[in-house]
Amino acid sequence: MDEPGPHYLICLECGHGFPTADALLADRAALVERLNASLPPPPWDPAFEGPIEPDGDPEKITYCPHCTHDF
């Protein structure tokens, strides 16, 4: 675990600890921002659904934004 103290959620793969739900949301939002910044320019592949939207509910985040391991 990389942060001491109580945690909202801990990734069992990389050991990253999210102290609060807001910390998880912030890390996920930073990941989404990085991914969207690296999108290819249009026209996109027809199977591509466009830019990723950030999550507003921490319960809907199913993987660690640091290592992509499922929670």
Explain what the structure shows.
The protein has a two-stranded antiparallel sheet with strand order 1-2. It has one helix and two strands; from the N terminus they run ββα. The protein is mostly helical and 71 residues long. A hairpin with a 6-residue loop joins strand 1 (9-10) and strand 2. It has one domain.
Brief digest:
With 71 residues, the protein is mainly alpha-helical. The protein has one helix and two strands, in the order E-E-H. The chain has a two-stranded antiparallel sheet.
Q: Uncertain runs with pLDDT below 50, 5 residues or more?
A: none
Strand order of the largest sheet: 1-2
Task: Output the structural class.
Answer: mainly alpha
Mean pLDDT: 87
H-E order: EEH
- The separation of the N and C termini measures 15 Å
Number of strands: 2
Count of separate structural domains: 1
User: What is the overall silhouette?
Assistant: elongated
| Largest pleated sheet | 2 strands, antiparallel
Tell me roughly what share of residues is in helical segments.
10-25%
Any key phrases for this structure?
6% strand, 1 helix, two-stranded antiparallel ribbon, mainly alpha, 71 residues, elongated
SSE map:
Elements: E1 9-10, E2 17-18, H1 21-37
Antiparallel strand pairs: 1-2
